[in-house]
Design brief:
This protein has helices at residues 28-33, 50-61, 83-86, 98-101, 103-118, 168-188, 193-208, 253-257, 308-329, and strands at 65-70, 75-78, 123-134, 137-151, 157-166, 212-219, 224-232, 262-265, 280-288, 291-300. It is of the alpha+beta class. The chain has 2 domains: 4-166, PAS domain (Beta-Lactamase, 2-Layer Sandwich), CATH 3.30.450.20; 170-344, GAF domain (Beta-Lactamase, 2-Layer Sandwich), CATH 3.30.450.40. The strands form 2 sheets. Strands 2-1-5-4-3 form a 5-stranded antiparallel sheet, sandwiched between helices. β9 (280-288) and β10 (291-300) form a beta hairpin. The two termini are 23 Å apart.
Length: 349
């Protein structure tokens, strides 16, 4: 099953951004032409290799998202179709080193690909996933990417032509669908109710790449979460229902009652020695009608940020578990004799 990080929220084109820095945002053709100067990253255009000029003409005429990484410094040149990937960072990334454009993914993700291409090996990746920092927020991205070496006049690899197809939305929906299908298969299996909840929470945790998911009821008066079921990694202490986790943080229970998902980090904790040992928590309310009945909580010890798509996945998974409990509690038959086919129905948004 694809994890949510492997289906890493859709990158959206930024409208009218950067106007405070520039009254007119030039086209990529104009920006590349503006690099024709002695102190530019490529020097004066009269010294640009023929192969580079041919590739520039190619990408500027293409409707497909394309870019060129030129030289050992991987100077980035791109066309208009590539602009959504950069969002508000366009046009300021034209002519910069790729390591400076994407510092957050350079060492682990991009540099190994660059080294491979400069060795003379072209390649295609059907699903390349990563998390970018855009406008101070973390954005999930999923692309199909090809790297093709560009040979110079001396027979050496002088640069790379990269063609990109953005697939973020489809990849995330695929991950959510796979998760709900897996949870449904678990709920239709002949296991005890507790076991089904535990397995479902484990599936959610695997998709979120976190180390604990808990499904429980919330006492709004004191913030206590009473565990109804859950899963945690072997090296993580289970949730203690006697502790008022919600009130350990500078958040309001009323936010949950109003349908707001809570994202919590250790920086907002009032008492570090109490509560789950995690750097981040994500708590989503589960409603029955207009009343909040239970919450589903994910925690992890990493320092990465929760994204909107994580909250949606956690909420959908929690709703699926709530459906199971409601069906089982509202029926006198044994859990194994339940007709749980209603769980195949889409989760209500």
């Amino acid at each position: 099953m694809m994890t949510l990080y492997q289906a890493n929220a859709s990158l959206q084109t930024s409208q009218n951004q950067g106007s405070s820095r520039s009254a007119h945002v030039k086209s990529c053709r104009e920006l590349i032409a503006g690099l024709d100067r002695m102190d530019g990253p490529l020097g004066p255009r009269s010294s640009w290799p023929h192969e580079l000029n041919v590739m520039i003409a190619l990408i500027l005429r293409a409707e497909q998202s394309m870019n060129i990484l030129w030289g050992k410094d991987c100077i980035l040149l791109y066309n208009d179709a590539y602009i959504p990937t950069l969002a508000e960072n366009h046009p300021y990334e034209m002519g910069r080193k790729l390591s400076e454009v994407f510092p957050e993914i350079w060492v682990d993700r991009v540099e190994p690909m660059v080294r491979k291409a400069f060795s003379g090996s072209g390649f295609y990746i059907d699903e390349m996933d990563f998390v970018l920092q855009q406008g101070g927020r973390s954005k999930e991205a999923n692309y199909a990417v090809s790297f093709t070496p560009i040979e110079g006049a001396d027979g050496e690899i002088a640069g790379i032509l990269s063609v990109n197809t953005e697939r973020t939305k489809g990849a995330i929906e695929k991950a959510r669908t796979e998760l709900l299908e897996d949870i449904t298969s678990t709920l239709l299996s002949r296991q005890s109710l507790d076991r089904k909840i535990q397995t479902s929470c484990r599936l959610i945790a695997e998709s979120l790449a976190c180390n604990m998911v808990v499904f429980g009821s919330l006492n709004v008066s004191d913030g206590t979460i009473t565990t109804l079921g859950g899963w945690h990694a072997v090296d993580v202490a289970p949730l203690d229902s006697s502790k008022t986790y919600i009130q350990l943080y500078d958040v309001q229970v009323s936010d949950l009652q109003n349908g707001k998902n809570l994202t919590i980090s250790t920086q907002s904790r009032r008492a570090i020695d109490d509560g789950p040992h995690a750097n981040r928590l994500l708590i989503c309310p589960i409603f029955e009608g207009k009343s909040m009945t239970v919450v589903v909580m994910a925690s992890d010890s990493s320092n990465t940020s929760w994204l909107e798509s994580h909250a949606l996945l956690l909420s959908r998974g929690g709703n699926r578990i709530a459906d199971l409990i409601k069906i089982c509690e509202g029926n006198n038959a044994s859990d194994e004799e339940r007709d749980l086919t209603t769980l195949l129905l889409p989760v209500q948004e």
